[in-house]
Amino acid sequence: MLLGAGQVAWESNRTGEFRIFLRDLAAAEPRQLSPDEPDRDHCCPLFSPDGSRLVYLSLPAGRAGYEDGRATGELRLVDLATGATRTLAPRARTYAEHRAAVWWGNGAVVLIDGEGYTVRLDLASGERERLTAEPRAEFGWLIDPTGRFATTGDPTFSRYDAATRRIETAPRLGGCQPVFSQDGRWGVWSAGAGGPIARLDLESRRQTTLLARNDPRTIDGFGYLYFPNPTRDGAALAFAASRGEHDHFTADYEIFAVATDPETLEPVGPVVRLTDDPAVDRFPDLWLASPPAGHRAGETGARRPAPRAASPPLPAERWPVSEEALRLLWPDADTVGRGWREGEPFAAADLFTSEGWAWFDGSGRMALAGGRFTLAPALAEELNGALMATNELTLELAIEPWSVASGSGGPIVALANAPGSRSFTLYQEGESLQLHLRTSDTAPAGAPVEVGRLAAGRPVRLAVTFTPGRLSSYLDGVPYLTEQLVPGDFFPWRAVHFAVGGEERSPERWRGWVESLRIGARAESAATLAASDRQRRAERPAPAPPLIAELRLLATSTAPALAEISPYREALLVQEFEVVRVLAGELPAGRIRVARYALLAGERLPAAGARPGERFVLRLGPFAEELRAQSLFLADTLPAAWEQPFYLDLGLDLGLDLGTPPAGAGE
Fold first, then answer.
1. Of 44, 42, 23, nearest to 34 (Cα)?
2. 625-656 as b/e, with b when 16 or more CB fall inside 10 Å?
3. How far is it, in rounded angstroms, from Cα 103 to Cα 510?
């Protein structure tokens, strides 16, 4: 065996239900480790660093581990020499995608309890220590063996601060199944549907591909890669792969491994096949007794390094407003936002939670196509209270609506409990931007005031300021509304809901992009806001001009069903078009291919039912520049045509208003 002495554990449904299997690398046949247990599935096997014990999770049978993040089961410890088994936690969860524990040396396990707290369990004494100050409602956090980083099944590889027991969430990366190296240097995950398996430097956050999808080093056509897991010493990487099938519960996945450089985790040997069965073999854990020939031994993780302060300092001031006045900022860097909790600032990529057709696009903007982003109610209530305390407001945001036609629009930003119970709502009605601001002198729905005008296909930066009696607004740093009289103060404000793209207890949804959002509890001057506009433009240059064309559909890939891509809820499909005419930007004549959303938030989109011969007007971007899209499931059943340019449909063809075609547009 090229990997040397050792053993591999994984989960398989070869008996009809998922059980934990074990194979000694020197033996040909595997053996079932976990017992037959009716109506239970077994998952998440993980060897102790010394290879003498193994933990696994027993969950209710079925797909509950994926579809119900609150599903709990017994986390069990098996002594591999004697077979003795004991329950470590009667109610434990996965972090999603079936990982449930991290070994901190041979004597302690980090797990997620039934309430969603991350817990360190001392195996000798039974002592339990909560590592997170707050539970996570769905799934949970696992913390790396050095106590410095944490992640859920969504790969964020976020920093963990042991002193405060808080996690400052980093931007979510595409893909799933993140895992840490034992030394806390690397994060490894499946960075897209079927690969690649990628590596992340946890300090610099530089990404590198370890194995590409359909990598030439893979064997027997098993190039659809998932479930990566490096060994404790970094001397090998275990993973599972199929021949292009995706479903994690029905596809013929097999277990493989490849020898790696312990310093870099980069493959240095051939891929080795470890299982051969038509069942689903997934989530392997590989333990090596010694490194493969030619490798230098790595750390076994027997001693956990003392945690060091890991929370980065908040970025330097980026908005000419005092820290006391700033109350909500998005983004701070990449898709990280900053909010205030109990008067203290904190940075987090998941400051906003998406609902429905809402996501962060490849440029890091909020893309809203009928969904919305919401703030945690406790943070919204604190924001409401902070603004009430000063009776002043500065709202600054950069937006681009999908349509400014008559009848289009909706609530863009809302601090409101309902349309009839607002603190404020910024609302679009066609070309008009209106602020519905509630004061002690207005009705609960707020008095609407026009604060700006919009034009089709043109992004705008809006700033609105209020101090009792006076409301002003600015478009792209230029005054639009000069001190309109709005009497009263914020005394009646009671909102505990804040949303972007919608309003609480209202079905209306705004469609467009939000590039940035800042809220301060102070009315800023015209000079300050002009300086802010210049600074913001320098920090985040305007996106590339739109690329818009009328296209005729020639051929389409088969759209996948939601069940086929589980646990993902989003999928793209590739379609081939003839360019009829270019309305904005430049496109080559002839044929192009476009990836379009077939499924979003679990819902089927119109592109999935498109038929050859139909014409569409689409807003496009080069697919290679849309990193988020590259991590999604891509259905491509068309014949290969590498010479054709490849784009992504940025508008989802859901009512994008293109305005008047430019003079001289192609016919």
1. 42
2. ebbbbbbbbbbeebeeeeebebbbbbbbbbeb
3. 46
Sign of CA dihedral 595, 600, 602, 604: negative
Residues whose CB is less than 8 angstroms from the CB of residue 555 and which lie 6 or more positions away in sequence, other chains included:
575, 576, 612, 638
CA 421/CA 444 separation, integer angstroms = 5
Q: Where, residue-wise, is CATH 2.120.10.30 in the chain?
A: 6-288
Return the number of other C-beta atoms located less than 10 Å from residue 404's C-beta.
Answer: 21
- Give the integer Cα–Cα distance in Å for 460 and 130: 46
Residue-wise pLDDT for 164-178, tens only, equals 999 988 888 888 999
CATH 2.60.120.200 in the chain is located at: 326-539
Task: Return mean pLDDT, the chain.
Answer: 88
310 with 194: CB under 8 angstroms? no
CATH number for the domain whose boundaries are 6-288: 2.120.10.30
Q: Output the pLDDT for position 281.
A: 97
In whole angstroms, give the CA distance from residue 45 to residue 76.
10
Our CA angle for 332, 197, 331, nearest 5°, is 10
Residue 103: beta bridge partners? 109
Amino acid at 181: S
pLDDT, average across residues 471-486: 92
User: Domain 326-539, CATH 3.40.630.30 — does that match?
Assistant: no
- Over range 592-601, report the average pLDDT: 91
Q: Encoding tokens for residue 447?
A: 């008095």
pLDDT in tens, 209-253: 999 999 999 999 999 999 999 999 999 999 999 999 998 888 999
Range 606-611, long-range pairs (CB < 8 A, 24+ positions): 606/653, 606/654, 607/559, 607/573, 607/575, 607/649, 607/652, 607/653, 608/559, 608/573, 609/559, 610/553, 610/556, 610/575, 611/553, 611/556
> How are the residues of the chain apportioned to helix, strand and coil, as percentages rounded to the nearest 5?
5, 45, 50
For 259-269, write each residue's pLDDT tens digit. Answer: 999 999 999 98
CA distance 651 to 98: 34
Q: What is the mean pLDDT of residues 502-507?
A: 96
DSSP three-state, residue 572: strand
Q: What are phi and psi of 61, to 5 degrees?
A: -65, 155
Instruction: Please compute Rg for the chain using Cα positions.
Output: 27
CB atoms within 10 A of CB 445: 15
pLDDT bracket for residue 495 (50, 70, 90)? very high
